[in-house]
Structure formats: C-alpha cells, structure tokens
Amino acid sequence: MSRSLKECNNCIQQFESHFPFCPYCGQKSGDQLTLSVLFNNTISNYFSVDARFFKSFIPLMIKPGHLPKQFISGRRLMYLHPAQMYLFISIVFFFLFSFVSRKQVESLDNAIKKDIEQSHFHRDSIKKASRDIPTAKYSVESVLDNEDHLSTTDQRQVQAIDSVKRVERSSSSSIFNRKINEMEIDSMIIAGASDEELYKKMGMRADDGYLTKRMYKQILKFFKTKSGGSILQAFLDSIPLAMFILLPIFAFILKLFYFRKGRFVHHLVFSFYFFAFLFSVFTLLVIANLIWNDFPGWIMTLTMFSTFFYLFFGVKRFYGQGYILSYIKSGAISFLFLSMVLPFALFIMGMMAFLFY
Q1: What is the reported pLDDT for 257?
Q2: pLDDT tens, residue by residue, 268-285
Q3: Which residues 6+ apart lie within 8 Å of 43 measured at CB?
Q4: What domain of life does the native source organism fall in (predicted)?
C-alpha cells in the first residue's frame, strides 16, 4: 500500500503526509501564515539569534523585498523571523543611540542653564540701573510719558526701566490663553512659596480639567528644575514604542494600496523587514557619527534619501507589479506616511513626553 507524500515549503523535501513536522528541517507541516504564527514564540526566542541572522542580514540590505517574499512562500526557517529580526536590530540601534542622546540631553541642559544665568545677570544689571532714578521725582509711568523733557542721564535710566518692562513682557508665557510671568514665578520659588500659591499665581483654577492641571504641574516642574534635557530624554525614550505602533500603521497603508495582494499579515511581514532595514541604516549612521565627529551631512542626507529607492524596489519585488506602478505607489506611500502619520506621531510623542517626564 503506497503512502501519500507531501513537500515541505521550507526545504522542498518530500515526506509522508501524516508527519506533523518535516523530518528534514523541523518546520511544521501545512503551517498556515496567521497572526499567531507570526508572533508565536517571538519574545521567548528573541535572544536565540543564530547564524540565520548573518544569513538574513545581507539579503535584507542588498535585495529589497527578497526576505518577505521568501517568508510568505513558506521558507520560514531558512531566514531569521521578521519580528525577531526587527526587535534585535532596533535594540542594537537604541543601545548605540543612547550614547548620542545622552550628549544631546547634556548639551540642552547646559544651554538652558547658561541662558538662564545670562538672563538673570542682564535682569539684575537693568534693575540696578533703574534704582538710580529718583523715585520721589518720577514715577515709572510719568518718566516714560515725559522722556523728552529729561536730561541725558535720566533718559538712559528711562531706557533701563523700559528694558525691564520689555524683559518682563518677553519672559511671560501662556497656557490655554492664560499668561504666566516666569520672572514672578522664579521669585516666588526662591522665596519658598507653596505649590498651591504658585499654581494660583500661574492661573490654574479649581475647575480646570485633568489635562490642564497636568500641564500646569509640568510647567511648574520645569520652572523648578530648569531641565529641558529631561523632557528631551522622555521624548527619546518614547521612540521605541512609537515605532512599534507606527509599524502596523505602515502595514495598513500597504494594505490600502495593495488590497488584493494578500492578507494584512502579509503586509505586516514586509513592514517588519522594511523597518528592520531602516534601523540597520540608522545604526550604521550612528556608528559613523560616533567614530567620525565631523561626519559629512550630505552623506547622511543621501543615505536617508536612498531608503525611498529601497522601498520602491522592495514593493516591486514583493508585490510583483511593474516599475512605473511600483514607483507611483511607493511615492504615494512615502508621502502619506511622512506627511501625515509620522508628524502626528511626533506630536503625540512630544505631548506625552512633556506631560509625563
């Protein structure tokens, strides 16, 4: 009695159909690509990066669309899993990027402290000059109104008063159309005012909503610490989560343009490999900047621009459409993602970083 045979999608070897796994390579027999298959054991197997990574990395970089096409066709053990590859490369990138971001945070904090010191010195100098005007003879308003009748010395002192008023006006900020005078808040903080007094001075009301009160708290926190670097660090720390959220959105955009070219999970596979390529490029640029202090900006710009052509050739190979149609669609996908999705994500990241730093 003859036994029926089936062919393994991964190693193309034939084996008896009743076997649940291929006896040659170990891939599950009749494995259907679903979301559960795509993510199954990805986290638990993350650190088991073996020779498949090196076997997958070169095709990832020089053959756009090859890896996702192979994975969709059933060869899922020959190359590194797309989600696993994305996670590994992205973590390497963020590890290296942390050295660059630390310098940026320190530079921002130093710049803010220097600006504050210069502002305080300028303000104290102006106030000292303004105190030399005889207050019994002139009030601030009358002096400013009768500037033409004053002596040359008094006119210079009047200019000092006017400078003080301009500094006070320029140092005020607003939140939801409510003015906040930074100089007054700084003075109250130095005097040891309570948070309740500071919030009242800033304009926070008892009936304000949670978001408004949270904003006031963060502004007061900034006034006390004068640390913009912590906000920047919170923003940078939110990038990994944001990129992981942007990835399925990118896959959804692909689904819109290639609606008849497979299920959503197929577009997700392409997105994982494409984002892994992007992080590989970012990693190489970070390494170049760490090694070469004066790394030419034009090389970075050219490298970033080349990612569009990678996407173009990737969708051409993966979806099997012509050059012209693939170029038009890849251009539209890039424009939609970069002009609408990415700016909105950056705005949300900035808001979240400020509200929860």
Answers
A1: 94
A2: 999 999 999 999 999 999
A3: none
A4: Bacteria
Q: What is the pLDDT of residue 311?
A: 95
- 3 state DSSP class of 296: coil
Strands 14-16 and 5-7: antiparallel
Is the separation of the CB atoms in 245 and 352 below 8 Å? no
DSSP SS3 for 190: helix
Residue of 14, 91, 2 whose CA lies nearest to 46: 91
Question: In degrees to the nearest 10, what's the CA dihedral of 89, 95, 100, 106?
Answer: 150
Q: Which of 75, 88, 101 lies closest to 275 in space, CA to CA?
A: 88
Per-residue pLDDT tens digits for 44-91: 555 455 667 888 999 999 999 999 999 998 887 888 889 989 998 998
Maximum Cα interatomic distance, the chain, rounded to a whole number of Å: 121
pTM of structure = 0.64
Q: How many CB atoms lie within 10 A of CB 277?
A: 22
DSSP state letters, 252-293: HHHHHHTTTSS-HHHHHHHHHHHHHHHHHHHHHHHHHHHH-T
Q: Which residues contact residue 268 at a Cβ distance below 8 angstroms, ignoring those fewer than 6 apart?
A: 35, 38, 247, 248, 251
Distance of CA 117 to CAs 112, 171, 222, 232, Å? 9, 14, 16, 21
- Residue in this structure with the two tokens 């944001």, named with its chain if needed: 242
Is it the case that residue 17 has pLDDT exceeding 90?
no
Question: CA-CA distance, 269 to 251, in Å (whole number)?
Answer: 8
Cα-Cα-Cα-Cα dihedral sign, residues 44, 48, 49, 51: negative
Residue spans of the domains in the chain: they are 1-31, 32-97+238-356, 131-170
Give yes or no for a contact between 280 and 61, defined as CB atoms under 8 angstroms apart.
yes
The token pair that represents 303 in the structure block: 């490298």
Amino acid at the residue 159: Q
Instruction: Determine what percent of the chain is predicted with pLDDT higher than 90.
Output: 24
